[in-house]
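Dear support,

Our group has been running a series of protein-ligand predictions, and this particular one with NAI is the one our PI (initials K.S.) wants archived with full inputs and outputs. We had some confusion internally about which version of the output was final, so please treat the block below as the authoritative record. The input we submitted was:
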Amino acid sequence: MAKKENTVEDSGFLTDWKYAPAPEDNKHIRLNKKYDLFINGKFVKPVKGKYFDTINPATEQKLAEVADADEKDVDTAVKAAKNAYDKVWKKMPAKERAKYIFRIARLMQERAREFSVIESMDGGKPIRESRDVDVPLAANHFFYYAGWADKLEYAFPNRNPQPLGVAGQIIPWNFPLLMAAWKIAPALATGNTVVLKPAETTPLTALKLAEIIQESGLPDGVVNIITGHGQTGAAIVNHPLVNKVAFTGSTDVGKIIQRAVAGTNKKVTLELGGKAANIIFEDAPINQAVEGIVNGIFFNQGHVCCAGSRLFVQEGVADEVIRKLKNRIEKLIVGDPLDKNTDIGAINSKEQLLKIQDYIKIGKDEGNDFYQSSCSIPSKGFFCRPTLFINTAQSSRVVQEEIFGPVLTIQTFRTIEEVIEKANNIPYGLSAGVWTDKGSKIFNLTSKMRAGVVWANTYNKFDPASPFGGYKESGFGREGGLHGLSGYLNM
Ligand code: NAI
Ligand code: MG
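Confirmed final output from the archive:
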């Protein structure tokens, strides 16, 4: 008997509902016109008095001015962190340290709504994502690591875990608050102090976090948050009193940082780019897989280092999967990040939009089959329609290079050996996904994929207790879970 095919219709994807606008209210948020540097528990002006704008990428309107820290400001911040480490934080009983971290977590929960709205306004991500993913996960990281602070001897038995000193932390624009939480929470739990620099396009939630930190009564200088560009980041990395560098961002900058710390005693963790394979076998639940693929690359505008940007689909189901994907991306709503129905918000910056558009041109010039949703996009702001490149060659640049936008490449395969070989044949190794009915296939594949995280029959799922990090050009070291603690300890 012929297998009854799952139709697009029975998945409900074709239902042609038009949603009325459902914008999230942003009257309740509090934003200053101008933000100074958060050093030694106070907001202080930058020495040179320079500021730069952060804009809303969905409207291109200015949201606030933030301080541009130079080497002198970095020096003041690092010295404040060093002083707080020596005089207060490393001497404080661990259970007292934990109380502050719990307090930060609770304050963040109390102000979750304000944080979500600001995150969406400053970075362009849909409110659904910032409200349901970024902010709750950020608070959870503080809760989780607060719990470990006084249990390090149990986490690492017989190893005498000791803090490193001052951690210099540099984060990107795709998960501004969550990356700040990933970096600050384990550093504090292990008894280190912090100088953190958010990305230049998304500084606002880190500065709001500074307000919370001030409110929590955390001793002055334990966390310092300073804004600026690449030079500010480099000054943190190169400061002699910094004992640990934690970086998330591009592979290019990761390499510069690695060179800068070579020959010093500084410990480093790097979380860099990715080009994850998402693999669908013939026996997979196809509708669920299509939804997972869409979630893996299009939500959050593809601004995810572990985004499932390369789809591998087994030949027998390729036509069906591609047809369903095309139908599904036609229905995605691209637009106002503050609208609760929006699937794809604004691209984070004009620069990033130009980079994505460049790659779309490259993919077309290479002769790949091209398909783009015909959905409408706002006339102002930085937006990109969800895009597919079908029947791409393994050597194609859009397959090999990180695009960091809503662009999915599609390749087909016949055997499991073939797909493992192709999926691994890439400079990156951060994550992967596999969709199949068979547990044995999942285990076979996960043991052979050179990727730090492999999701099975789901995608982009995070938990503070599970480690995250990559192989090859995706970086080294792990964040999250016990692994995330060990990067901040001498043992
Ligand atoms: P980037 O790596 O330049 O920026 C990340 C952070 O590093 C920012 O805070 C930036 O100010 C800082 N930085 C820049 N140069 C530095 C230096 N020499 N020393 C120390 N810190 C420095 O990333 P960018 O330019 O914003 O994005 C470029 C590409 O990187 C994206 O198109 C994407 O492909 C990739 N990317 C990957 C991310 C990930 O999560 N793995 C996050 C953001 C970007
Ligand atoms: Mg911004």
